[in-house]
Design brief:
about 300 residues; alpha/beta; Rossmann fold; five-stranded parallel sheet; four-stranded parallel sheet; 11 helices; globular; binds phosphoric acid mono(formamide)ester
């Protein structure tokens, strides 16, 4: 692929190549000198129209570990506030000899829209409720690291599936690698099209957790909900919050994941998030190697 818009566009072989490349970069970033000179001739702009902690810093570190030059753009403090369009903004950045754009944007399809209108490689760092491809790659990579393989594993994604780009990208990524996928949550937060994706649906958290090897706990995305949703946060926690008592009541030891940011005490309690069954910080660590791999592989397509 020329750009990374979504996992939907990747083949199982593409994902395998990204993981094998990330394996090499994970070794690099665990050395005392955490850098390789591979992309000394490449300049990358991180263009963020939405807040981020993990994705933004992880991309910046990945770029620096590859020796690329990096510029960071936050829409809130930019001339977007004076009415400049997305395409004008990015074309102005590109005219400063930038080769690649990493973009987070609140609108679904924004990365694809941009990639069709500018002369640069575009990596989607999250486009509204659509996809968050590098998150899904680092999630699957973390499952592979912990369990040896993704193929044949049972993964449940719990929570606000309706508003989640992480859920959609994970569904595509897990299925392409031969995992079984279930979503679990209140029916008000599960999209009607979910059955077309070939995933199981379960409204009872305990049953879903008994079924799975891995539970990926999502945050309720209040910022994307324009109606008063049901259930309330308190009801949600009672029905879908994962606490230690529930985790310990299961007949086998499952792996617990979360893309972050966590709302402690809502979808997951601290004693679960910080338990030895949680791989939440491993996911964040792996994000740098995965993003190095994605950038490195796409940079091969930049004209030099
Ligand atoms: N997981 C994730 O995308 O986190 P940020 O919003 O902090 O980047």
């Amino acid at each position: 692929v020329e750009h990374l818009n979504g996992i939907e566009d990747l083949s199982p072989r593409d994902i395998q190549i990204i993981f094998e490349t990330a394996d090499r970069f994970k070794e690099v970033i665990n050395r005392p000198i955490k850098k390789v000179p591979s992309l000394r001739d490449i300049t990358i702009a991180n263009v963020f129209f939405e807040n981020s902690t993990r994705t933004k810093l992880s991309f910046e570190l990945a770029e620096k570990r590859l020796s690329a030059d990096v510029v960071n753009f936050s829409a809130g403090s930019s001339s977007v506030k004076k009415g400049e369009t997305l395409v004008d903004t990015v074309n102005n950045i590109l005219s400063m000899k930038v080769d690649m754009v990493v973009m987070r944007h609140p609108n679904p399809g924004a990365a694809k829209f941009l990639s069709e209108r500018v002369d640069a490689r575009v990596i989607n760092a999250g486009d509204g409720t659509h996809e968050h491809p590098t998150q899904a790659l680092l999630d699957s990579y973390s499952i592979r690291e912990k369990l040896g393989t993704v193929e044949g594993k049972k993964v449940v994604i719990v929570g606000d599936i309706l508003h989640s780009r992480v859920a959609l990208s994970n569904i595509y990524a897990l299925q392409k690698q031969g995992a079984e996928v279930m979503v679990c949550g209140p029916s008000t937060l599960i999209p009607k099209y979910i059955h077309e994706l070939g995933v199981k649906v379960e409204n009872n958290l305990k049953k879903a957790l008994e079924w799975c090897d891995v539970a990926n706990m999502l945050r309720i995305q209040l910022e994307r909900q324009d109606i008063q949703y049901f259930p309330s946060l308190r009801e949600y926690t009672m029905l879908y919050g994962l606490d230690k008592e529930l985790l310990n009541s299961l007949s086998k030891e499952i792996i617990v994941m979360h893309p972050g940011p966590i709302n402690r005490g809502v979808e997951i309690t601290s004693d679960v998030a910080d338990s030895k069954q949680s791989i939440i910080l491993n996911q964040v660590e792996n994000g740098v190697a995965i993003r190095m791999a994605v950038i490195y592989l796409l940079a091969a397509k930049v004209e030099r």
